[in-house]
Amino acid sequence: MTFKKAQWPRKLRSTEWFGGTSRDHIYHRSWMKNQGLPADLFDGRPVIGICNTWSEMTPCNAHLRDLADRVRHGIYEAGGLPLEFPVFSPGESALRPTAMMFRNLCAMDVEEAIRGNPMDGVVLLAGCDKTTPALLMGAASVDLPAIVVSGGPMLNGMFRGERVGSGTHLWKFSEAVKAGEMTQEDFLDAEASMSRSPGSCNTMGTASTMASMSEALGMALSGNAAIPAVDSRRRVMAHLTGRRIVDMVKDDLKPSDILTRSAFENAIRTNGAIGGSTNAVVHLLAIAGRVGIDLSLDDWDRCGRDIPTIVNLLPSGKYLMEEFFYAGGLPVVIKQLCEAGVMDTEALTVSGNSVWDEVRAVRNWNEDVILPVDKALTRQGGIAVLRGNLAPSGAVLKPSAATPELLVHRGRAVVFEDIDDYKRKINDDDLDIDETCVMVLKNCGPKGYPGMAEVGNMGLPPKVLKKGITDMVRISDARMSGTAYGTVVLHTTPEAAAGGPLAVVQDGDIIELNVPERRLQLEISDTELAARLQAWGPTTPTPASGYEHLFHTHVQGADTGADFDFLVGCRGAAVGKDSH
Ligand code: FES
Predict the structure, then answer these.
(1) What would the pLDDT profile of 354-400 be if each residue is shown by its tens digit?
(2) Is 118 within 8 Å of 47 (Cβ atoms)?
(3) Which atom of ligand 1 is nearest to the CA of 93?
(4) What rounded mean pLDDT belongs to the chain?
(5) Gap between the Cα atoms of 301 and 448, Å rounded
(6) Distances, alpha carbon 432 to alpha carbons 439, 440, 468, in Å
(7) What region, left, alpha or beta, does residue 431 occupy, with left being phi > 0 and alpha being psi -120 to 50 degrees?
């Protein structure tokens, strides 16, 4: 840790708006006072933004206004002035065509809202999948003191005496109905049991993964990730976060001080240990790009390869976030990784303390939920990065969610040109497919879908499911929900819509997957592949206008985080002229 605190007191950024007697200063203060703010709140104290992704269209974040009030208490208590502001909230469950298409829009909104407004630091209130990375990306590009507080997961779902995990059981039940093992009526009955409290998905899906990543990166207070949304301690966490940001502003502790290469490597290792979502790959690459850290897919493979998965949560294991919290949550995992010698224990966190200082005193209260390393769910957790002539720039697979026997497999390709083609064909009993085949889905990457939807874990054909088969090798340029499972190759780059080799796979081609050797190969000659690529032409035209045009024109590949090319990097907090 080399961070040196700034001197306090000193003149803050917000005094440019509020700290004088000119006409402009009076203008800025006067309008703020219409909210009933006393004059002495503009005395040069830290002004803290509360960046809120609350929305009733984002049900996972629908309770965040209550948490914002708790943050507000903490800020006032510590001598700051809190000002809450809304940003675009991409909700995973309802937004079309896919919330991922709007992560970058939210990040732009956050960045410009922070930079353009009179604040000295910001609390980032996030929950649902895309809201956490979007807020971190936007805040990192401004680099004012920033801290995350998560909305927290839902309580356990229960259906007829069994745990029901968000998303994971939706996929399981839906396959069971197709296989004739569950009635449609029972599926409808199960619906109400899946989301029984406020909060984000209760599995180790993308929301829980990204809350864990925030904590592992050092951008949230220790213990933030797992506290259930409705537990009173979630409010305490919000309150303490409000207090802490005021001191972060006084110390001038910024994202660039915390988001170092070590922090990202710590987060990648933590992702392996928790059996985290493959979506963390694109999000961490994008966040790293905002602070100028040259993180790559190879870092994911190198850092995560030998990390055992020790968190026994769905979809890799059997418990849910509530049990994870009762067992001690992420600090226990980080402590075990520190003791195993794989973490940078000196990495700085928002508390001002090192990673090790934050976790050294914690205990594991349930070794069936957070397993000892020698009883790990899998010895090699993490994310496998595959390369070969089918994925020259890489593809990813989550071994802990895959069927071990399928990790080395050769099979005949059954190709779906896009998601509509898949939907048209998959239930047709005449489809020439069996469990040894490799399902290939094209045109679902960032440009292709557009937005890189979570359709990579495409459901199996009913005629295969009816044989009791639950997994097949699937390959696409799409993403997969963090709550999903299977031997699923994702994020294949370059994507099909950008003319990657995936675009020219044909029915009947043989594909080889070899995860231990990190290989994904289309078994055709180089000459044949070159000829097919030469003959290929784009099938997804650039939209003529609107946000989709911006997205399609500027989104980068999944291998670098699917950020917009013009948003990569840190642009700082400096603003242009005052308009008054
Ligand atoms: Fe919002 Fe899962 S759908 S967290």
Answers:
(1) 999 999 999 999 999 999 999 999 888 889 999 999 999 999 999 88
(2) yes
(3) 3
(4) 96
(5) 26
(6) 11, 13, 18
(7) beta
Q: How many helices (H) and strands (E) does the chain have?
A: 20, 14
Rounded to the nearest 10 degrees, the angle between the axes of helix 279-290 and helix 261-274 is: 170
Other Cβ atoms within 10 Å of 352 Cβ, number = 16
- Nearest one of 562, 579, 580, 567 to 112, comparing CA atoms: 567
The Cα 441–Cα 433 span in angstroms is 14
The reported pLDDT for the residue numbered 70 is: 98
Instruction: Return the best residue to mutate from 53, 201, 313 for the ligand 1 pocket (most ligand atoms within 8 A of CB).
Output: 201
Contact 153, 229 (CB under 8 A): yes
SS3 per-residue string spanning 125-145: EECCCCHHHHHHHHHHHHCCC
Six-digit token pair at 253?
């502790």
Sign of the dihedral defined by the CA atoms of residues 332, 338, 344, 348, in that order: positive
- CA angle 555-104-59, nearest 5°? 135
Which atom in ligand 1 lies closest to the alpha carbon of residue 60?
A: 1
Phi, psi of 208 (to 5 degrees): -65, -35
Tens of pLDDT, residue by residue over 417-427, are 999 999 999 99
Region of 189 on the Ramachandran plot (φ > 0 left; ψ -120 to 50 alpha; else beta): alpha
Span from the CA of 561 to the centroid of ligand 1 (angstroms): 20
Closest protein CA for atom 2 of ligand 1? 201
Distances 536 to 444, 531, 554 between C-alpha atoms, Å:
17, 9, 22
Ligand 1 pocket, residue 128 CB under 6 Å? yes
Instruction: Report residue 546 as tokens.
Output: 């609107």
